[in-house]
């Protein structure tokens, strides 16, 4: 069904709470930010798929290094890696919900002839249908 704006806000609020609970370091945060930007690929792949994969792996490697600074033990650091990657996967789901919400709001606004800023319209009109039609593949760390 439709995600209410309230549910969406709760989901979005969960993210900074989790960051606080996990006491994410600046280094971890920067790595996670980069990984999240690299967490979808078009289904048809990329022209420079190998370079993309390498860049993504580098950030994942940097994340493990940042975790080792925070957690010395092998078990503790692998648990932390699990929790941080799980959080990134959850964020992916939340972003999808936000996208759906944006698209339905955009369609309703169009029906009521509300003007959207041009760049926003372009992003919504060209990108979101691709995402929602499953024409992009999320790169998740964990299977549900």
UniProtKB/TrEMBL annotation:
<feature type="domain" description="NR LBD">
    <location>
        <begin position="1"/>
        <end position="124"/>
    </location>
</feature>
<dbReference type="GO" id="GO:0033993">
    <property type="term" value="P:response to lipid"/>
</dbReference>
<dbReference type="InterPro" id="IPR050200">
    <property type="entry name" value="Nuclear_hormone_rcpt_NR3"/>
</dbReference>
<keyword id="KW-0805">Transcription regulation</keyword>
<keyword id="KW-0804">Transcription</keyword>
<dbReference type="InterPro" id="IPR000536">
    <property type="entry name" value="Nucl_hrmn_rcpt_lig-bd"/>
</dbReference>
<dbReference type="Pfam" id="PF00104">
    <property type="entry name" value="Hormone_recep"/>
</dbReference>
<keyword id="KW-0539">Nucleus</keyword>
<keyword id="KW-0238">DNA-binding</keyword>
<keyword id="KW-0675">Receptor</keyword>
<dbReference type="InterPro" id="IPR035500">
    <property type="entry name" value="NHR-like_dom_sf"/>
</dbReference>
<protein>
    <submittedName>
        <fullName>Progesterone receptor</fullName>
    </submittedName>
</protein>
<dbReference type="GO" id="GO:0003677">
    <property type="term" value="F:DNA binding"/>
</dbReference>
<dbReference type="GO" id="GO:0042562">
    <property type="term" value="F:hormone binding"/>
</dbReference>
